[in-house]
Amino acid sequence: MNPEPRVLVIGRAPIPVPLVADVALNSAFHVKLNHDALTLIGRSREIVEETAASGQRVYGLNTLLGSGRDTAVEEKSVLAYQVQVVRYHNSGVGTFLDRAAARAVILARLIGFSRGGSGVRPETAGFYAELLNRGVHPAIPAEGSVGSSDLTQLAAVAAVAIGEGEAFDAEGTLVPGAKALADAGLQPLTLAAGEALPLVSANSYSVGAGALALVRLQQLARLADVGLALSLETTARYDGGGNLSPFSPAIQAAKAVDGQRESAAAVRRLLSGGWLEDVRPEVSVQDALSFRAAPQTHGAFRALVAQLRSALEVELNGRGDNPLVDLESGQMVSGGNFQPMQLALSFEGLRLALAHVGISSERRIAKLYPPQRAIRAKHLAAAAAGSGLAQEELPGLLWYSAAGLLAELKFLAAPATLGAPTLSADVEDHSTLAPLALQQLEKSLAALEKLLAIEALTASYLLLEAGAAQPLGKGTAAVVGRMADVLAERPSAPELVERARRALREAVAEVRVGQGDERTSSDLDTGVALADGGETW
């Protein structure tokens, strides 16, 4: 018997960003608008129609766009103009978004419609819900937005909605948008006056893809603590380190940084039940800063992840439309809410934070290199004695790969949002470049995931070589067990790191960093439980 599909019912209440990622990643989700949302959308549409009938000049409703803002569109051309707007803006380039990202874009725009600021018809909003429910995957080019609304990405969705553009079928083949709609049992949407602009003018790519990045960042915050805990176990065995006093509640209580306390607590949980909990008389009084001050670095990163979630939820649940349909006054008002500056700067700051986390990780890996050299010398001596050269499970120069990844992280930390030129005859003379900042963040995420996987592999290899004379912490032991399975397969270096990445993601998702990662102010939860019958947000 098939389980009941999970249902997201969109109402007027704010929707949490992790839920957007959940729906985007799970195509079995069914999405619908409730009566309250449809009523709000309907009232918003009435204001648009009343404004159009009044003859008042309103941007994009009866005028051209950009530098043509003061040029009227004749009434007899208004419907044709809707199609022209979609075609004109469908100008993105580059690779296409994957299915999850495309779903996130559509869902983010649908939620935007439900806030009542766009003025689209209820049937248009419902059509976007059906794009999700029936698995339509528009071919959305990743590049083209300067971050003053993600015009080109959203135009690619709108083009499919009106039976143009391109989409991917169930097998991943690129097909005409009209065929994708027909295969899904949908008729192309005919746009009414003033609907084209709200379909393309929003930051739904930055918000939707940003929601997916947020989930990875939340996982990465935990993974950084896992790598640190494994390296503490290793330096204790090979170099007399592993002093846990910097992770003590006394130190963490002395400085009111939530993320820092959470990171230190996660490390203590990972190491609980192991020999590092007992103070050893021979332990170094202080480890290097990449160990000792890691909670400060990881905590700052966690704090920025929390800030990103806040910025995403402002954009997701706000009304970024221009012109804005103001329900209170019954007017359409021009403004600049489509400029997601806070979100763009959150993307910027996180890349810098990821680089700092990478610096600490790479320095810890460097300090684990001498024991590897000693192991290789031992194997070479055994070979000289006639035992044959042992094949080592860990490639010898993974540290160098880690150093290369760190260089990439530092390069990617450079500002992306300052580079936009002026556009549209100097009318659009400032842009956020939020999509570029996001795309650079996605690259940084991938680089740091690999770097931390190398740290986990290196530490686990050395802990396995050291044997079981001293018990590992419960959390670190579980991770070392997973890494042992990966190492035992002896894949090539690229495949080794990739398998380690997958195994670490699973470990973080399953054990939640020592089974006790409580919800905190930084809210690293990656999902929202829904009732079987759906839950209204």
Structure report:
The strands form 4 sheets. Strands 2-1-10 form a 3-stranded parallel beta sheet. A 3-stranded antiparallel beta sheet has the order 4-6-7. The protein has a two-stranded antiparallel ribbon with strand order 3-5. Helices cover 57% and strands 6% of the residues. It has 537 residues and is mainly alpha-helical. It starts with 6 loop residues before the first strand and ends with a strand. The protein has helices spanning 17-25, 35-54, 78-89, 99-114, 122-133, 151-161, 177-183, 196-200, 204-239, 249-253, 258-271, 289-292, 294-317, 341-367, 369-387, 398-412, 434-466, 474-488, 493-515; strands at 7-10, 30-33, 93-96, 137-138, 141-143, 166-168, 174-176, 324-326, 331-333, 535-536.
Task: Based on the model shown, name its key terms.
537 residues, mainly alpha, elongated, disordered C terminus, 3-stranded parallel β-sheet, single chain, 10 strands
How would the blueprint of this fold be written?
Elements: E1 7-10, H1 17-25, E2 30-33, H2 35-54, H3 78-89, E3 93-96, H4 99-114, H5 122-133, E4 137-138, E5 141-143, H6 151-161, E6 166-168, E7 174-176, H7 177-183, H8 196-200, H9 204-239, H10 249-253, H11 258-271, H12 289-292, H13 294-317, E8 324-326, E9 331-333, H14 341-367, H15 369-387, H16 398-412, H17 434-466, H18 474-488, H19 493-515, E10 535-536
Parallel strand pairs: 1-2, 1-10
Antiparallel strand pairs: 3-5, 4-6, 6-7, 8-9
